From TrEMBL:
One Pfam family it belongs to: DUF1003
Protein name (record): DUF1003 domain-containing protein
Keywords: Membrane, Transmembrane, Transmembrane helix
Alphabetical list of InterPro entries matching this protein: DUF1003
Signal peptide: none
Transmembrane segments: 31-49, 61-83
Chain positions covered by the region annotation Disordered: 132-155
Residue stretches of biased makeup (Basic and acidic residues): 134-143
């Protein structure tokens, strides 16, 4: 009745390609406050340096706009790759959850069968009739009444 417990995450990490790992790392870096702060600082430094006489990209900062456009294109692609991977992970996890739920349902049904057999044995030991249909009716009545206990003579 026991099932082997699998660490799905560890198994999944073993199947990642170098590209998958790189996309995850880039997504984690580009989606951080550290990246946002560094990026804003870089743009401020670029504007300050290019506002003086030694400007290699004077105002309106055409070269900076080119770099920002390229970065936006790459970030979009990287984020789409990471989102696609996240969807695949969610689908695999839901499949794993479904299989776990099916196994748990089977185990619960087995436990309920054992419980019914024990109840019949207790009834036999106490000298009560071993009518499992009548016992089941009493259990159902008690359950529907919300008490959860079977009262003697409630049949």
């Amino acid at each position: 009745m026991t099932r082997p417990l699998a660490d799905w995450h560890a198994d999944h990490r073993k199947t990642l390609t170098k590209g998958d790992k790189a996309a995850d790392r880039l997504r984690n870096v580009m989606g951080s406050w550290f990246f946002v702060g560094g990026f804003v600082a870089f743009m401020i430094v670029w504007a300050i340096v290019n506002s003086f006489k030694i400007a290699w990209d004077p105002y309106p900062f055409i070269l900076l706009n080119l770099f920002l456009s390229m970065l936006a294109g790459l970030q979009g692609a990287i984020l789409l790759i990471a989102a696609k991977r996240q969807d695949a992970i969610a689908a695999a996890l839901s499949t794993h959850d479904y299989q776990t739920n099916k196994a748990a349902k089977k185990e619960i049904e087995e436990l309920m069968a054992i419980n019914r057999a024990q109840l019949e044995l207790l009834n036999q030991l106490c000298g009560r009739p071993a009518d499992s249909a009548e016992t089941t009716k009493r259990v159902e009545r008690a359950r529907s009444a919300g008490t959860g206990t079977v009262v003697e003579g409630s049949a």
